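quick one, 474 residues, struct below
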Amino acid sequence: MTHSDTFLHPDRLLPVGGRTLKIARDLYESVVDLPIISPHGHTLPHWFADNQPMGDAADLFLTPDHYVLRLLYSHGISYDTMGVPRTDGAEVASGRAAWKVLADHYHLFLGTPSRLWIDHSMNWAFGIEEPLAPDNADAYFDLITARLQQDECRPLALLDKARVDYIATTEFALDPLTHHARIGEQGLSSRIATTYRPDDVTDPDHPDFQTNIRSLGDMTGQDIESWSGLIEAHRVRRAFFRQHGASATDHGVPSTRTVDLSTTDKQALLTRLLKGEHNPMDSETFRAQMLTEMAGLSCEDGMVMQIHAGARRNTDPRLMERFGANLGADIPVSVDPVSGLEPLLQRYGNAKGFRLLFFCLDETVYARELAPLAGYWPALRSGPPWWFHDSPRGIARYLDGMVETAGFHNLAGFNDDTRALLSIPARHDVWRRCVCSFIAEMVSARILGSNDARETVRWLSYEAALDAYGIKLT
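---
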């Protein structure tokens, strides 16, 4: 096989050939060098506040990447062997040893988006031109680790190299935002912002919920035992987050359920929760009511509201106990956006200035529910394919299910939603290639003209995210 057959073919993800390939190539050339807008993700703010070297190759590509960890674990490779830090501080594999494990099993990632992202990242950042393999593992480890110590590979330099115009991290409600304060002191808060994610105080199933919600009251000086005081506490914290650049909130929930209870019922529910006298239905109802409350607060302060629904998280209690959360044992579940979002949308779906971005892991609802919802409610836009479906075929299924009913301009563009800094340009490149392929097929079918096609790929690659999140670049 030739080099181009095995590693980063220039036409990867584009149509196979003929006129459609030429159209897709031309469209891709028009967007490949656009800056990146990354309005939702989980990169760590201290990377940018400190701007220090990022460790070794395993720290970059393996131990923080739940996509990689879960697939290796499915083949019997332990988290200790992959070098993931344990909650009890026990010794785990060194970075070099863990990297060798990844190299020895890199073939397991054939056909996965993880393989595309890692190959692209290693080539883009370090000039590597052959896939990771057992016989080059040590050489690549040394090369990457050495390059990470150079100024050109510090976090802020990598943002510059990737042409990231805007990036948002995600912090919980009780976070002191000390790193973002230092980012602001460096004059970077218009480029690197936080996002308000209050799951730590809105999810009664959180193990520290009661402690957290009382801490929320202490931090804000509000009486969280009253419903009005609880909502005022959120109002105060949201204002604090906005002072650190936040323009959006994010809410990770297992279902799409929302409710709009009476004041009396809301207070009774809160009282049961604080006394520890609640049942599982109370927990679900509290999460549902808090989504409606957060929508109301967004109508007040203009923060864009994101809902990420349909994940059953941390399903392996042994993994959770030994290593912690968000390491791969998360599974998609079905959702019901029409019934679930109905109370929230009936209350706020027509509110001027309110923007709700909805993401889900249930692909079966795209054409049947999500596209019609986004194609009607002024407040609602569809977030891009998320998590397990942030993949070439997942993107194709999403566009195919959404566009005919919702159109292109009810889509929120793309966000990478990643914890891995170097995967940001790789993920945006996959999205842009897939969008160009999809649009090229429409041009070939004479559905779109060439000018509309160019405007649409630019919209989906760059402008839609700015518009959906209300981002004003300075």
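Residues 280-301 form the longest helix (22 residues).
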